[in-house]
């Protein structure tokens, strides 16, 4: 989260998928924290999932990982990757599954 904070405080444009937006909001412990999270994310560009193409692409990512011997633990990670692939944007992450996805796709990852 510190890297994301640093990026938000800089002139770097940050994009979030709708799934990441939801995950960050659900991580707010108290209702008043939700407003603070929304405010800090307001400069971000929101990349929306486009059904059904992104969901099909996410399933393709999942199957590619399985063929390579990797089980992706959360299917929503495949959807996040599919949106990043479609938009050709790098993915900042702290999740080993994104490294596995990058190994079987053109996903560009930036580990925290």
Describe the model.
With 112 residues, this protein is mainly alpha-helical. The protein has a single domain, classed as Rossmann fold. The chain is built from 6 helices and 4 strands, in the order H-E-H-H-E-H-H-E-H-E. The strands form 2 sheets. It has a two-stranded parallel sheet with strand order 1-2. Strands 3-4 form a two-stranded parallel ribbon. The longest helix has 15 residues. The model has no long low-confidence stretch (mean pLDDT 94).
Keywords:
single chain; 112 residues; mainly alpha; Rossmann fold; two-stranded parallel sheet; globular
Report the radius of gyration as a whole number of Å: 14 Å
- Proportion of residues in β-strands: 5-15%
How many helical elements?
6
Q: What string gives the helices and strands in order?
A: HEHHEHHEHE
CATH topology annotation: Rossmann fold
Helical content class:
55-70%
| Superfamily (CATH H level) name | 5'-nuclease
Strand line-up across the major sheet: 1-2
In short, what is this structure?
The chain contains six helices and four strands; from the N terminus they run H-E-H-H-E-H-H-E-H-E.
Which secondary structure elements does this structure contain, and how are they paired or packed?
Blueprint: H1 2-9, E1 15-17, H2 18-26, H3 31-41, E2 45-47, H4 53-67, H5 75-87, E3 91-93, H6 96-103, E4 109-111
């Amino acid at each position: 989260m510190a890297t994301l904070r640093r990026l938000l405080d800089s002139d770097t444009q940050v994009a979030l998928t709708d799934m990441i937006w939801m995950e960050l909001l659900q991580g707010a412990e108290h209702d008043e924290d939700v407003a603070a999270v929304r405010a800090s994310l307001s400069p971000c560009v929101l990349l929306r999932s486009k059904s059904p193409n992104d969901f099909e692409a996410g399933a393709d990512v999942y199957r590619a990982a399985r063929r390579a011997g990797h089980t992706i633990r959360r299917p929503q990670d495949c959807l996040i990757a599919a949106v990043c692939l479609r938009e050709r944007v790098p993915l900042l992450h702290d999740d080993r599954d994104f490294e596995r996805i990058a190994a079987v796709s053109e996903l560009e990852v930036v580990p925290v």
